[in-house]
Amino acid sequence: MSAENTTGRSALTPFTIVAGIIVIIGLILTGLRFMGGLGAVTNLDNNNPWGIWISFDLLCGVALAAGGYTTTAACYLFGIKRYHSAVRPALITAFLGYALVVFALHYDLGRPLRLPYPIFVSQGTSSLLFEVGLCVFIYLSVLFVEFTPIAFEWLGMKKLRNIVHGWTIPLTVMGVVLSTMHQSSLGALYLIAPNKLHPLWYSTYLPLFFFISSMFAGMSMVLFESSLAHKNFHHLMDETHKAESEGVALGFAKACSWIMMGYIGIKFLGIALENKWAWLGTGYGMWFLVELVGFVLMPAISYAIGYRDRNFGLIKITALWTVLGIVLNRFNVSQVAFNWKLPAAERYFPSMAEIGISIFVVTIGILAYRFIVTRMPVFYEHPDYKGEH
Amino acid sequence: MNRRKFLGLVGATAAVAAAGTSAHAAGNTHFTGHPEANAVLFDATECIGCRKCEDACNKVNELPKPDKPFDDLTVLDTKRRTTEKIYTVVNKYENSKNPNLPVFRKNQCNHCQEPACASACFVKAFKKTPEGAVVYDESLCVGCRYCMIACPWSIPAYEYDEPLTPRVMKCTMCHPRILEGKLPGCVEICPKEALKFGKRDELIKFARNRIEAYPDRYLDHIYGENEMGGTNWLYISGVPFGELGLEEGLGVTSAPELTSGALAAVPVVTGLWPVLLTGLYAIHKTREKIEKKEKDDAVSAALTKAASEAEAKLSSELEKADVANKRKIEVEVKKAVEEALLPKDDDDAPEEEA
Amino acid sequence: MKKGRFLLRWGAIVALLVTFSLTGIEAMGVVKQPVASGEQRADIIMIDTLKTFGKLEEAPVAFLHDQHTDALKKQGKDCTACHETEKDRLSTKFKRLKDVDMGTVKETYHANCIGCHKEMKSQGQETGPTDVSCRSCHSREVKASSNWKAISMNKSLHYRHIASDAIPKGSEEANCASCHHKFDEQSKKLIPAPGEEGACSYCHKEEATKDVQDIRSASHTSCVSCHVDVAAQKADSGPVTCQGCHSADMQAKVKVVKDVPRLKRNQPDAVLLTVADAKTLATDSKGLMKPVAFDHKAHEAFNDNCQACHHDAIASCATECHTVAGDKKGGFVKLEQAMHKPDSQRSCIGCHNERKAAKDCAGCHALIPEGRTSDQSCSSCHAEDAKLDGTAQIKSMSKEDKAAMATAMIEARKPAGIFKISEIPEKVLISDLVDTYEPAEFPHRKIVETMYAKVAKSELASAFHTSKGTFCQGCHHNSPASENPPRCASCHGKNFDATSNARPGLKAAFHQQCIGCHTAMELEKPAATACADCHKERK
């Protein structure tokens, strides 16, 4: 509809220049990575085999892409129709999120070409990583299928679009099932290393923590992303979308608030059950409270206030706050509290190149997102399919 | 909705569930080790820190030459770990019993009975052999390094500088040599037999006898007998194992058991969620239908009511109009009659009125 | 206005988070360990006297005794400023002789402590708390850490007291009775008991009884009072402060007399240790364990004081307490255990095991399993004399007979010497395993001679290494002692085999023996890792 408006007029906006530079640097780093091995670009070592490519690209990426299953489930399975206009942006975010996770994994894996091995060659069924891999693989396919109607509408392939559109419900159910499994399994990955993860973060409830936090992570990401979209793509949105977005914001804010409160509850339940109260008095305990109070409890309250006062500005800020909290949590589990017994000199800190690649991956995501939303019916309903859900 | 497709997809999720269940079953059985498994017993009271084992390991496994030769014992002054080029290291520790006499410990893969690395590997690149060794198959490895996260002793190392075919490297217990009936390289060379090779259960018996015979020399504990479900590399020592850099308090739960709970959730999720969600969907769909019907009914009822009310009003209006008309007519008639009865001098007026 | 408040709230939240994070991160590096405060004192007394009247209402008061002694000394005051005297002896209690009731005791402390502090303050002197706030004194926190160490009256210290001019000499009675006494039940008085002296703790236990003070009060009243008196006469006196006796530093500085003359308490030179309890002797007429000749005189020289063995009283162990079957009096420790328990320092074996750990002995003994006894173990101590069997003879023997027999048995224990020097190989070439190294040249004779010299030097070792081959078995073990022991390879195979008696392989057998012995004897050279010092590297 208005693709030409944004991209056609002038290619050299500040955005494209910055993005271009990032992409060029990213490509150079990519070259270095695949020519020289992981050692050439990363600070990873034998004690710290997983760096920010896992912490940020994988753990945060998957958590923040959880908006896909939460929104589709809310809309289609729980019948909250007013979320309908949020479904497509959420789906795009989820699809891109997962695609980028897989993309970024190619950097982190020693032999990326063997990525299909766990699924097609040798199945290590006792591994939680296998569960993650299989679920992500299937879920990415599911998301792709869920995404195709958007592309088909854009391409005008009516028949195919209608066939796929008919699968919405089973696809949504599968999305929830697969997400439940791999979101929780990402936390369960760390169950195998009780001696390496700090007792405050290690818990047999880790899978539950990861799953529950993925719910509000996904919703907050949808809110955060929509606030950005409203800024940048306002002209693309149809009236329904604009009208419904307030309802979506309020609904998600309320849901997040409740879920986050519940999350805090079971976090403390975990501490109580394993009697780890004494740890709260240590430096790590402080940090744990920073994460839990500063980045879960306070945003939860903030969401509640935002909902009560219909304060959309506050909800937007809180969404970002929550997203940062999730990032903090995933980093804490995978980096800060992991290998906590190692002396400071042997701890890991990412190299510039690692950070560069991560930024590169995010930039690619933003570019792909831009490409899709400026061309395909995401923020508006395609005129041919008005009112069909 | 396409029913056949739906069933197909449900089938696919069931496959995931099946995969999960089998893994769980494997993790939930109490495994006490292969009966004929070999093991190595390390006696910290015997080790003199000569690094001969490192040398032998290097030669047997054809690993790259180190920067400093193996007879350079100053290397012991720094704490080292296993790397992709060194499968085993000997470290020196302070002796809390006798400060003048440092103690040493050889570090290498402990060859768990239920290895964390094997349980963590999503392509089964690690395998526990019945002979006791945990071996690695580089032809399957994807290079995810989850094994390194999982290993409680942080043993596996990775070829970070290898761009195309990086491998995870660790002690193999000289598995090929064991199959040939030879001793592991380090055991064979150890001058003081600080490393003893034998069947695991026999070594444990031996170690117990030894601890009993020399109660002052040893702590009453065989490290590795139960740690993390038991290992095929065992340790006895005169000083607490923590002082030898061996983590105490690892517990006796094997790695597969640690994750079996999470894997057990897979069939629950795949079984419960679709049913529950489909149910929820059906409920809300039905509710929607009912609501729609109720709404329709209400609308039609309202319409009927409105119509009848309108009709009633109309008829009453009509009636009222009727009465008014009649009255008017009556009045008119009366008037006409009266006029007609009046004298004829005013003839024009009634004509006009009529 | 509204906007301002909003910003304020956010600012506060952010500031809170930042400070929290910063402290969190800073504290994260190291988990803080409680740091032991620098000062170490031996004079910290926790005043919890009221405990005897029930649960304490307030935390005990940490009282630094020496600090107070010093402060009072500067004012020209002595112990009597705080301690009352009774029969020329200072009471250990503060400003009273008896704990009458809780109120009085409490008042004694409050009035006198605070009173004195106030008085000193009024004189413009540095002093302790003068306020009436409870926590000034009753707080658990003590700034210094305690390095209090118990002191024991060892042989040297005991002798110095005997020899001291401050203690009346002349008659034994006057000398010993200055400290040693016994409690006469009838007269309820302390009377001298010549020939019955024992350790204070035999009567003065941890807890006081109606008639007998606890060991703490008894020793402090006696020792400190005497030291104070002697010091008052400007004579050479013992310490009067806490740390004088109870700090490790001061204890190390105590003068030690090397060759202490034997104590005179009519103790025997040799004792024939037999089963002595009446019950066993009455019932069992045969098959009792043969007696052991015990060299009491020699053991006196090795031990610091009588309590090393006579831990509860100076009496026969077996008569009443450690009977064959065990008795309540002896904590049900049977005679066999009392003599043989390997982990008790009071038992024969336990103490000897400790001696075996000395570096001269450890070379061989560290390699010999301590947890097991061999067939010969019993006869090393229990007489082999076939005539000494059953109770009959022992019962019929007079005390003198027994002593004479014991003396004779002890005399008989002489090292049997070694095999003929000329027949002991001078050098042994260990060439069984020549591989990367040349054969090791083992200076066999030199080592044998060194070992023998060490054995002969030690009375204990001489008493136990009684046959010519005994100490050869340090290396040539597990086969009968012989002039021509079998080669090591006769038993030790190539590799360790957990099933065949768990013998080390030949290579390890050599290395464990040589290196093990050298390490145990703390021989610096050759270092365990200096391979070429023993066998040249093969070119």
From TrEMBL, chain A:
Q: What GO cellular-component annotations does this UniProt entry give?
A: plasma membrane
What keywords were assigned to this record?
Cell membrane, Membrane, Transmembrane, Transmembrane helix
* Membrane-topology descriptor: Multi-pass membrane protein
Q: Where in the cell is it found?
A: Cell membrane
Please give the start and end residues of each transmembrane region. 12-32, 52-78, 90-107, 127-155, 167-193, 205-226, 247-266, 286-306, 313-331, 351-372
InterPro entries to which the protein is assigned, alphabetical: FDH_cytochrome_b556_subunit (IPR051817), NrfD-like (IPR005614), sulf_resp_HmcC (IPR054900)
Give a single Pfam family match.
NrfD
Any keyword Cell membrane?
Answer: yes
Predominant location category: membrane
Which Gene Ontology BP annotations are present? Answer: anaerobic respiration
User: Which PANTHER family has this protein been placed in?
Assistant: FORMATE DEHYDROGENASE, NITRATE-INDUCIBLE, CYTOCHROME B556 FDN SUBUNIT (PTHR30074), NI_FE-HYDROGENASE 2 B-TYPE CYTOCHROME SUBUNIT-RELATED (PTHR30074:SF4)
Q: Which family does it belong to?
A: Belongs to the NrfD family.
Name of the molecule in the record: HMC redox complex, integral membrane protein HmcC
Species annotation: Desulfovibrio ferrophilus
Automatic annotation (TrEMBL), chain C:
One GO term in the molecular function aspect is:
heme binding
| SUPFAM superfamilies in the record | Multiheme cytochromes
Task: Tell me which residues bind heme c.
Answer: 176, 179-181, 223, 226-227, 242, 245-246
Please name one Pfam family that this protein belongs to: Cytochrom_CIII
Q: Where is the Class III cytochrome C domain?
A: 56-138, 167-246, 285-365, 453-535
- Keyword hit for S-adenosyl-L-methionine: no
Could you say which cofactors this protein requires? heme c
The cofactor remark states:
Binds 4 heme c groups covalently per monomer.
Keyword Iron set for record:
yes
What UniProt keywords apply to this chain's record, in alphabetical order?
Electron transport, Heme, Iron, Metal-binding, Transport
PANTHER family per the UniProt record, alphabetical: CYTOCHROME C7-LIKE DOMAIN-CONTAINING PROTEIN, LIPOPROTEIN CYTOCHROME C
The name of this protein is: Class III cytochrome C family protein
